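User: Assemble these into one structure.

Assistant: Restating your components, then the assembled model:
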Amino acid sequence: MEKLNSLTRNRIVLLVLLCVLPGLCFIHLISGQIDISPGDFYDAILQFDQENVNHLIVREIRIPRMTMALIAGAALSIAGLLMQTLFNNPLAGPYVLGINSGASLLVAFSFMTGIPCLISDMGTVASALLGAFLFGLIILSFSYLVKSHISLLLIGLMLGSFTSAIVYILQSVSSAEELKAFTMWAMGSLQHVELSTLPFIILLFVIGVVGTLFISKPLNVLVLGEQDAKLLGIQLKTVRLIIIGLTALLTGVITAYCGPIAFVGLAIPNLVRLLFKTRDHRTLIFASALFGGVFLLLCDTVIQLLEASILIPINAFTSLIGAPFVVFIVLKRLA
Amino acid sequence: MRFLLFAFAVILITGCSNDEFGDRLLPDHDEFSSIDSFDVMNVEYAENFDIRKSEGGFTLSIIDPNEQTVEKEFTIPINKPLKLISLTSTVNGMCSLLDAQNAIVGISSTDYLYDDQLKARSESGLIAEFGDESNYSLEKIIASGADIVLYSGFGDKFPNQEKLEKLGFILIPVYDWREVHPLGKAEWIKLIGVLSGKIEASKKFFDHVVQEYQTVQEKVSDLNTESPTVISGNLFGDTWYSPAGDSYMARIIQDAGGDYVYKETLGTGSVERSIEQILKDNSSTEIWINPGMSSLSAISKVNPHAKNLKAFDNVYCYSKNMNLFWERSAAEPHHLLTDLIQIFHPDLYPEKETYFYGKVE
């Protein structure tokens, strides 16, 4: 009965959030510095005029920005959930474990080697995916050597420091333009994606989400521990590799287009677990995606509302909110 | 951020032999004997330094651009050749224009050198590399035997300032980049003239620049054609930085007959705008200068929305030779002004090649 109540409550929460989502999207769309009438929004979508600045702003900035907030929040939250389940560690996440750092490192190489195919958009995406996957494998290898959660987190942080040092050296030998391009990418932004690029990003995102839903049962079993998972016939090696691959895909594509965005992948899955009190990964995946998307959308809406007086980078804003929340999680675990 | 801006702006030293003015302006006698002529070398346009004759030499005052109070004051002797470490490109350029390359014993990096003579001296070991001012070797500076270190002053203090001053080094922030008037920026050559013993040459050079600048400016003021609208700057992160209405760049755009979009904004630094605001404000702006990138593909990489600006087909950058620009644009604002006039009013100099600027393709 209690389980049924919990299930119902979770469904109601998700349903409410789903109902609120279009309203939040609308608020985000109209929150920019430029006043745009509803008529302009309508025309921008259905009767687009290239010469009309308001139409341009709606199509090339507001819609891609809103979509990227939703996708990036959802993708990073799912990636964080995957990491936390894989390492059975609530403080794991693509940022903390160095997956983002891996993506950043290879993107830095792609920006600063001067090789044209690497500097292209596709080169950046491929570099981010490869870097995220390689560093996922590295952290997975370390997880076999160390059993302590804290040790693994420390190794993740060290990987981050190590890559930062290499990136710093690369920056010192790169040209001014390469340095500027990389610095701007590293600052993170939801605004640099164009409408024409969105379908490709959505495609990779959908592949990542569907792939994660496909392995929701093995994920449920992984939570029980390695021994139980083996007894229940789970191919641990294969599942772990798939998890790393999906995490790399979700993190890599977002990192490539928006730069590294901190704390979303760490904070949101924990928030979802606190609220939903379930181990069912279908629910957790869906809830993480929804909460992550809404969280980043809200963060970006606040940024838009403040734009007239202060321009805050998205990465700084998510850290401002995410870091205290992670401290809260740690204190809660110690209590 | 500050460091990055510093790194982009404060490129290292160099010099090339004095071309246009060398034979005509530079005296061949020892400049250290010309102190008497200093009576007529007033500081007219620059706001961030002052020079006074004092017993046995000159007193240089560096004015804090924020507080407008004297930040540092030094007495420079006239009877001793000084060895300079120059950590800003401007100083390298000014030394090369005064044919005073021999005074320089240290630079930040050879990568940004333009002047052939400085390059040659660097290759032969007469000039050492010290790295930028945020990351230099203290002991290397101490061992250099230099008297004076000239730096950009982007930070609050020069790193290890107290230690170096205790050891007898004179540290001079070169605030030319904070000057509002293009000729004020150029006037810093007088300070370099005092430090390098090229007093008379620096005075003559500056007078020549003033004359050239005013002559070129008059050409534009006689024009009856409409001024083209101009935007400057680019995105950094999600913020577009443009020169504020009272800044040096805004001033020189106006002097060149351009209608700068943000001319009404207040301040001498920069104004910050979101990309939405930029698109809205510049839907009909005709010319875009100083995007900080030398190709349209590089601009698109950091700013994918740039192609929605009408001015995307008309982008100009000081990309003919970046090192030349960083070394010489401060001391030779008349070249900068002429370049901008050629961009804004191409009919005025139909045959003339631009000096610093090129069209971004």
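Chain A is about 80% helix and 0% strand.
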